[in-house]
Design goal:
Strand content: under 5%
Order of helices and strands: HHHHHHHHHHHHHHEEHH
Shape: globular
CATH class of the largest domain: Mainly Alpha
Number of domains: 2
CATH superfamily of the largest domain: MetI-like
Largest sheet: 2 strands, antiparallel
Strand order of the largest sheet: 1-2
Number of helices: 16
Length: 297
């Protein structure tokens, strides 16, 4: 028997070595090259904006974003302007950053609570309420802006950050995504927690929430991008210049009396940094969370 096993190892070893020497297949090489090319294409706008930050703003507006530039004309004047005489730019940046962090955290928590109820509990009219969530996903926000604006004015909440975040805490898309993810979690985990005497809130926070990191990361990226770039709704409800968010503040640099293109270009470039950091911080969870949310249930 030992001799036969030794013979099998000897005969299979060359085949294994051959497979290892072959390496990636042609299809894998083609796929890798395609993805690299697509990544480089997607980086072109970022590189164009980066080059534009070293140019005169009027020249950029006149010629457009281009890589055909005079290297001798490039300078750090725009960076000096940003860090020495940018006015309220960093105030707008801080406002947007704090608002994004608070809104994303609130949206993830509230939407996860709602989705957890839809996925893990049985109650009357459950299907009806979930259908209503799906219907909300089909309604453009532009149709809700006017009645929502009238409502927040009547409630005296205009010109506050609360009114910017409050209507979006229960996000229909986020609720749907979390529900699909929670459906893949065995309900035996809940029963085990109840047997051990854990409260319902304890089950959610101590047992369920720790295993939803991929879904949380995916939704943090998507909701963070939406909140950071939100322009129309804050423009309607904010009235004090010191409370402006970054998209609104950058828009005020273009006026009929003069345009500050230098600060606009470099300010727009620096506004990309938080989103890049957010994606890099959660990228290892992002694909896993998107895939799981798409196939569960």
């Amino acid at each position: 028997m030992a001799a036969l096993q030794e013979q099998d190892r000897v005969t299979t070893a060359p085949a294994t070595a051959v497979r290892r020497r072959r390496g990636p297949s042609a299809a894998a090489w083609v796929q890798s090259v395609f993805l690299v090319v697509m990544a480089l294409i997607s980086l072109v706008p970022l590189l164009a904006i980066l080059v534009g930050t070293f140019q005169d703003g009027n020249e950029v507006i006149r010629r457009g974003m281009t890589f055909d530039v005079d290297l001798a004309a490039l300078s750090l004047d725009n960076y000096v302007l940003l860090f020495t005489d940018s006015g309220p730019y960093f105030r707008w940046f801080a406002n947007t950053l704090l608002l994004t962090i608070g809104q994303v955290a609130g949206t993830l928590l509230v939407s996860a609570f709602v989705a957890y109820g839809f996925a893990m509990y049985e109650f009357r009219t459950k299907t009806l309420w979930f259908v209503m969530v799906l219907l909300v996903m089909t309604v453009p926000f532009e149709m809700l802006m006017l009645p929502l604006y009238v409502q927040v004015n009547d409630m005296g909440l205009a010109d506050t950050y609360v009114v910017i975040a409050l209507p979006f805490l229960a996000s229909a898309v986020t609720i749907f995504f979390f529900r699909q993810y929670f459906l893949g979690i065995p309900k035996e985990i809940l029963e085990a927690g109840r047997v051990d005497g854990v409260s319902e809130f304890g089950i959610f926070f101590r047992l369920v929430l720790p295993i939803t990191k991929p879904a949380m990361a995916a939704m943090a990226i998507l909701n963070g991008m939406l909140c950071w770039n939100n322009f129309l709704w804050p423009l309607l409800v904010l009235r004090s210049p010191e409370k402006f968010t970054l998209p609104i503040g950058l828009n005020t640099l273009l006026t009929p009396y003069g345009n500050n293109y230098e600060l606009l270009i470099i300010g727009a470039f620096f506004s990309l940094i938080p989103i890049l950091i957010l994606f890099l911080a959660f990228q290892r969870f992002f694909i896993e969370g998107i895939t799981a949310g798409a196939v569960k249930g």
